[in-house]
Amino acid sequence: MYLGVDYYPEQWDAEFLEQDLARMVSAGINCIRIAEFAWHLMEPKEGQFNFDYFAHVLDRAEHYGLKVMLGTPTATLPAWLAKKYPEVLSVDEVGIKRHFGGRRQACLNSPVYREKSALISTKMAEAYANHPAVIAWQIDNELGHETSDWCYCNHCEREFQNYLQAQFESVEELNYRLGTVFWSQSYNDFNEIELPRPTIPAKNPGLMLYFYRFRAETITRFTREQATILRKIIPQSQQITHNYPGDYYNKAQNFTDISECLDVVALNNYPVWGGLEQPVEYGKIAMKLDQTRGFLPGKNFWITEQLIGAQAHTIMGYLPRPGQARLWSWQAMLHGCNNLIYFRWRTATKGAEQFCYGVLDHDNQDGPRYHEMQQVFNEARRYASELNQPIKAEVALIYNPDNIFAWKIQPQSVSMDIHHEHFRLYQGFIRHNVAIDVIDIRQAIDTYKVVLLPAPLLLTKEQITKLVDFIQNGGIVISSFRAAIKDQDNSVYFNQDNPWLKVAGLKAYYIESLGNNSQVTIRNPSGVEYQAGVWRDMLEVTTGSDAQTIYNYSDEFSSYAAVTETVIGAGKLIHIATGINDKEFWLNLASQVLSLQSIPARLTPDGVEIIRRGNTDFILNHNNHAIRYNDLELEPYAVLIEGK
Amino acid sequence: MYLGVDYYPEQWDAEFLEQDLARMVSAGINCIRIAEFAWHLMEPKEGQFNFDYFAHVLDRAEHYGLKVMLGTPTATLPAWLAKKYPEVLSVDEVGIKRHFGGRRQACLNSPVYREKSALISTKMAEAYANHPAVIAWQIDNELGHETSDWCYCNHCEREFQNYLQAQFESVEELNYRLGTVFWSQSYNDFNEIELPRPTIPAKNPGLMLYFYRFRAETITRFTREQATILRKIIPQSQQITHNYPGDYYNKAQNFTDISECLDVVALNNYPVWGGLEQPVEYGKIAMKLDQTRGFLPGKNFWITEQLIGAQAHTIMGYLPRPGQARLWSWQAMLHGCNNLIYFRWRTATKGAEQFCYGVLDHDNQDGPRYHEMQQVFNEARRYASELNQPIKAEVALIYNPDNIFAWKIQPQSVSMDIHHEHFRLYQGFIRHNVAIDVIDIRQAIDTYKVVLLPAPLLLTKEQITKLVDFIQNGGIVISSFRAAIKDQDNSVYFNQDNPWLKVAGLKAYYIESLGNNSQVTIRNPSGVEYQAGVWRDMLEVTTGSDAQTIYNYSDEFSSYAAVTETVIGAGKLIHIATGINDKEFWLNLASQVLSLQSIPARLTPDGVEIIRRGNTDFILNHNNHAIRYNDLELEPYAVLIEGK
Amino acid sequence: MYLGVDYYPEQWDAEFLEQDLARMVSAGINCIRIAEFAWHLMEPKEGQFNFDYFAHVLDRAEHYGLKVMLGTPTATLPAWLAKKYPEVLSVDEVGIKRHFGGRRQACLNSPVYREKSALISTKMAEAYANHPAVIAWQIDNELGHETSDWCYCNHCEREFQNYLQAQFESVEELNYRLGTVFWSQSYNDFNEIELPRPTIPAKNPGLMLYFYRFRAETITRFTREQATILRKIIPQSQQITHNYPGDYYNKAQNFTDISECLDVVALNNYPVWGGLEQPVEYGKIAMKLDQTRGFLPGKNFWITEQLIGAQAHTIMGYLPRPGQARLWSWQAMLHGCNNLIYFRWRTATKGAEQFCYGVLDHDNQDGPRYHEMQQVFNEARRYASELNQPIKAEVALIYNPDNIFAWKIQPQSVSMDIHHEHFRLYQGFIRHNVAIDVIDIRQAIDTYKVVLLPAPLLLTKEQITKLVDFIQNGGIVISSFRAAIKDQDNSVYFNQDNPWLKVAGLKAYYIESLGNNSQVTIRNPSGVEYQAGVWRDMLEVTTGSDAQTIYNYSDEFSSYAAVTETVIGAGKLIHIATGINDKEFWLNLASQVLSLQSIPARLTPDGVEIIRRGNTDFILNHNNHAIRYNDLELEPYAVLIEGK
């Protein structure tokens, strides 16, 4: 089990290296990540390479018995490169170039940038591949983060045209499938197709979907190129990874595709960041961890950056309470992280991250955060064998990048947050402390008993067939509103009933966006009533169908169903046609489904997680107050370990 | 009476044309509008014209007895044109070019664009003018909509300089009349005058007024050019129209000028659109209809696009309730529409308007909206003769584009909404169900008994003279705050009393903007009190004047009047110096004025309209609840027809 | 004592000059400011100078016995200059050029602009220097106002590189001191350093501090160049000034440096402006006046523009009540203004300032504002000798431009408003009606008894030494949160205790940004509790220190101090580690400190000021209601003069 810190020796006077490494060892650290922002140090002038500095760092790390993850430095291009080749700088939607002076400003479609990146990574790999301290390589840093997934430069335009040419047999086929005859947008040639930049008043949703896919493919291709370079040079024992910033729902990225280029995935796990006045809800952190684990099924994952203190560039927020970083670290390990690195050894005194608080403060003393880290590492080592075991789940939440893209292109409701729609279905199950996999819609689902299908706007016929087979064989699918409106080209299904609702024996003619001030409620025959938001489909049970209405709307559309269940073969499809807000609804639904599928569950109070790994129960209290669970009195932010 | 749908056969596989036309006929349709976005289909490559497609559509329409309105296709330039002549693309205020991929991105001052537009319209007119199915032509589509009224390209700059040169005898005269000596902005030559682009901190209001007028004239000139082309080619029996999007208060457009280029005006009538969570207030819809009718006095108008279902690009909102589209259709016809076309036949499955719901849904079935349309058409035909009669009104609301522009340039109050200021004066009269004309300030007013003059910031001496004559002869004028501050150059009247207040026997030295959180109230001697907002002039009755104070302010300015009446000759001027919010005030005022002027009126509950056409009363309930009116129990969205 | 108006004769027909001057004299005016926006009038074409117009105005002013302040016209470049040399126009952060049509659009780093400005000022000085009416010169107008302190043009980039080269011995030194190794931002040459334009996601805070200083120096240098030109030509008796717009906390300007180029400073004093619905708090107006006085210690100052009526470009707000302009004028004089000019003689009828109401209204009558001005002038002359005396203070509030810049670069809390943090410390003292100097941190402080040090994020070792000496010798310093984190390069102090807290015997490991919804309170042992916001440091008293805890936090961090006092030598350091909102806290603190330091004070009710000048007490009621103070019944906006 690798436990360590991110370390930037180059940011400190040379005298600190030796004392830092010695202090790390005494703190229980056995691994450091280094070098991922150090292009200028390794190539100070164009074509002049110098790898002495980190060779020395590696030697000293080896001396202290520390293992090293190396980062390739392509996230931060050097100033000489930006100056000599300004065409590498990316351009925003309105045509404004991003300038040197931050990070991630380069366009991954720039030929010069790809060439220079290939060269520095090649040279670096050659320089360090055989060093005994090296155990892993991180490609770049947080690809696509902070809007860098978008660029509208001329290179991108040409590459987009090439991409489209590869996707369609001819421009006529593109015209037909994307419906460009609408608003006279037919193209005579691929080279007439502009990037979707500011226009009046709305863009072609089909072309936009291909643009999202093209942006995603741009990052995947860069990852693949870099991984291929490394793999040719480094030993098989060294793993290749990349560190995801973890915002899986607001990026033009396909994280499954990227992950398939890697040996193992890694997450930068920050449960609070910047100006947030409260941390992210613990269940959403759990979902992010489960999702990270799901990108390479069956494998655990690294955390390359775990929060130890407050983190911000220019606006700060909530201060993690004493013990809370430990709590979040345990949560991460219990959800599948088996190698954990804190960000960062010592807080920077210069540069843009002066307020990203690391293990050591600016005063360089062994303070509370140092001791909190030490405690986590001591505890974790005792449970290494449990934590290294893979996690087995019977519930799966579906991740479908195309569907996310389709919602981004046409949110339809001002309240639409596709991330939250995933969490809406997930929340009842995490409260029951069952393991949940978040898996790509391409994955096999036949080993699961329950599949959660959040707001599947874009759903292909093949995907529907797979899901129906799953139900027929005894599975339960819970799907939510606006299902299967769109096909793989982001066109609306034409001239037929909605193919997903048809499976359920339903139709929906009346539909309504509910906005931010929705007063709509749903009600069942017993008079139980819940608030609804975001959207609603008014469901009609079609003649001869087996669908059962569970909830109706309670206003003038009260003859229409909001929640239905349909028995299909040996399984069941539960369809929820609106965005229900009450936690209670989701808790009851999960209870019922877990019971039906005989999945063992343990309901805990809100904010409390109990997770069994091996024969040990780990109990976490995310609440800022003490709480009683069974016979246990859990202090705020407590981590209790029982059994073994 | 033409009743029909907008139809885009080119967006569907060829097999649908025949069945669509047949279904239309059986639904009661006798007219379709086609072709207004089909430039690429008619000129797929530069100079290569092909009119076969719509010739075939016209033939088949003729076969089924359907009449056709043709749209010229200039609202959506083809991709080849944008690619070859990028200078045709318009530019926003900060200099960012609008790109291909939407609609209306062309600059109407671009010589190439005007030439290419003239050519396609000429060729199209030649191709179809003599087809027996054709009854009318729509020029372009929603000119000026969606910010396309603004462009800041180099063509516009040159044309603006030419425009100014035509308006002023010399640059010295411009300098003098616009006061460019202020901030050293004197010009030595017209070619030094930049478009009013981003600067620090404020622009010359006189130059801005001329810029608004120039923008308005740009659209008028384009309409005139296109109308002239069509008129030369098409038979006299075919009418020329243009479809207004209906937002008459937020555009740099002069709708009177544009209308004068047309045979008949047309409105696209959407009482709810996009993300609106509630429909537009019914009285504001009525005002828009009355205003559309007023652009060509004495004539009724077309509706070229009438809402039948929810309409949105990317964010949706309120779903029109069953029956509500019928209600709005009847309201439109009762306010002067005598030919009505629904948008659109079948909902698009591809392109930017997938969520603009038409008569048929994506499933292509005869659904509820189909039946609602059919009902409207059946009903309307029975009352064709009533609906074809012109409407006669004794109350006129003044539309003055220059005044609207002046308010846009200097809103003065953060709460200023010049559209609402028009409605403020209109609201009491519509509640009394009297006919109201909205007429341009250039029109004769001597046939009216009441004239409403909303917030006439810019009011010329000639206009004042005409209004005073009207009052002298027995008319009543109701004017509101901030009257007659500005002259025709947007300069403040100098060195004299305010010329409108002088008419009323008033002065206003103290003035105040009331912002969004106004606590100001007005009060009459009986203690009746109303909330005031937006603005207030503190009125003083000048010595020897006949002005009577009706309301005073109730705070430290309580010695000043807020509402006054002045008898002038045989008539009366009622001046309201602040933005009174309470409906009751306006209801009482209208009651009193209608009674004084002996105009027959029928007061109905809020949300209920009763309109007599011929010998028939049509009663509309816009409320979402049942309501009693006289002996009638009106269901939500009811349309009741009585008499005959 | 000069009392007068700003006058723009060039904006009116020639016939008005004579009657205007005569009316001014009869109103009590003895001074006018003219010409500061009249470049085109003096140089209508490039190199063609014509000074006849203002020569005539000066002659006529002399005839009426009026003295004149002349403004150099460089704030508004003529159209011919913008047209011929477009490179003089400034550019915003994203690269958008500011256009002609407003004011202040020129870049002060443009060589052409500096050359043309030098030339017009030279010629103008030569033309008018020897006129007997001239008593003073105003350089330009409101330098840096309305975002004109920022420009990102190519000239600026080159000058910034030059500036940096002058600040650092080598690029290596820059790299080291600014920590550019972070994110691989090391430069090989100064010419690689771009202006800090849009990038991802954050910029180097050290480079940003130098950029702020460079922007500040740009304006200082322009002032110095212009002052040098004037000084060479004009007689010693004519004073050189510049009129500050008064927003000292949101500008990249160093007002101390600028002031040192001048003979006397001047303020444009607008207690309400634009759309503000209420005037600025009277205490903040007082602080602005005290600060203006402090830029040239020991000297009084001019007000070159004093509000007489409502002031706005396009959005108006609160109307100054009758008598309120007089109140504000007296407040200004009592805080150190001894020459006062109202903005402006007659309200403009043309140009961007039609709604900046002057002494005369658009009707050109002697209205209420005319009479209010006349009253002020009559009253003021009676107290000229008192008002001309300098003001002596024993309390000093520290102004530190570098500290303001550091907070702008990294606000750290979403609620941070460094202006308000200055006022937070000032408020209790102004309520006690003691004189307060606002002085630059470079000034000597040994003549004061109390020093207020607001949120001194950036504090150098030398500054700390000076402050400690001050305390040792019996002074009291009140400092607030986040003290001494940064050094002169905007780096965090490394490897040591916080040097300011160390002085106080304190440490702060836990820190937290409190945002906009803070529920945090502080509490003392007696149970007195106050709300805290913006930020908090959790203070620990270090072992063996003399620090006394006065308030603790009341939540889970209740073992940490929020307010402490430390006796040091003969003085005391009071440290307040959070943003306390309650006025009561600050009132009590000031009471206690004034008493300890034996500074005579008179506590008045909120809104009431009492200021003694010579042997006279002046009592001002800023409240909008009557209030009793001692035996006096003060009407709203009253100015009472007692004694003598």
UniProtKB/TrEMBL annotation, chains A, B, C:
Substrate binds at R103, N141. Residues 393-593 form the Beta-galactosidase trimerisation domain. One of its GO terms (biological process) is carbohydrate metabolic process. GO terms for molecular function: beta-galactosidase activity; metal ion binding. Zn(2+) binds at C107, C151, C153, C156. Its EC number is 3.2.1.23. SUPFAM superfamilies: (Trans)glycosidases, Class I glutamine amidotransferase-like. It catalyses: Hydrolysis of terminal non-reducing beta-D-galactose residues in beta-D-galactosides. The active site is at E142, E305. PANTHER family: BETA-GALACTOSIDASE GANA, BETA-GALACTOSIDASE YESZ. This is Beta-galactosidase. It comes from Aquella oligotrophica.
